[in-house]
Specification:
mainly alpha, 2 strands
Length: 358
Amino acid sequence: MSVAIALTPPTVADETHALAHLLAGLQAPAGVPAKLWESALLGPLTEFLSRPGKRFRSQLTRLAWTLAGRTDNPPAELPLVVELLHTGSLIIDDIEDGSLQRRGRAALHRLIGLPAALNLGNWLYFWPLDLLKQMDLPAAVELAATRVCLEAVRVCHVGQALDLAARIGELHSSEVITVCRAISEQKTGALMGLAAELGATASGADADTVRALRTFGERVGVALQMLNDLSELTGTAGPLKHPEDLIHGRITWPWAWAAQRLPAAQFAALQVRGANLAAGTGDATVLARSLLAALGPDPQRPTCQLLEHAFLDLTDAVGDHPALEVVRSELDRLTNYDSKAVAQPVSQATFAPNTGVR
């Protein structure tokens, strides 16, 4: 076959069909009534997976398979492995943040309760590993793919631990960028790196190619975190999501960039306001606007620079490959973001600072 898999990416309908096929294969244990199975696991899982998402991770897995030299299609389940791991992480992340919303709908633990959502999120860390066994990969390749998945999940939990513990009011301005980078690399970077590494590993690529693709994915993951952090300031993340990190006092890229741009005294004053907000006083929208003002007229510039360097390094590693056209278009899609959006006022009473579920 040709490289059509890369040059003509699967549609959302294609991926929806693949997910539906997987869900249809989830059978209840013997003797368990269908209604109970539906309420316990299948129903919540199906509902959450039906929510719209970027699906860039699964596309990156396909592209990595092709960029690593394959001219056939990867196993249908392979691109979904990282998507399902990511889905589990979203469910757990929302519990730990006390979030109200995810992908335009109520956070899952708000719909089905914390215990059931916690169990489903944890189950989604294991189901994808079982899928690897069903792909008829060579034994050595299956072992390598399983190991990279386990390592990525371990690293993501380290990043999440840092994210939950670090507070903007407790760091020196010189520490903010280092901590922010570590959190991003260990969380979104590790998972996006896995998406590329898994595709390359399953394809049977050599170690240098796998390493180059993993590095590219990690850098794209950090860029995604930058975009996400900006969206929570501007309001494009949605009216229930956009002040969440500020209210929890989290370390985000806007804080890191402000620490680099502002005089120490001015940044320290912003830190005090951030700490007060996390303690339950202050205005999230006013603080968001102050941070945006500190970033200058083009807050997306660091993200675009990171993605451009990542793309150039990938090009050097894989050569003049036709699938790079799709990589470029996918990166453009990710950065199709309104950096001039203005944060909209949100009722702070909607949130419960310092009392969210941990």
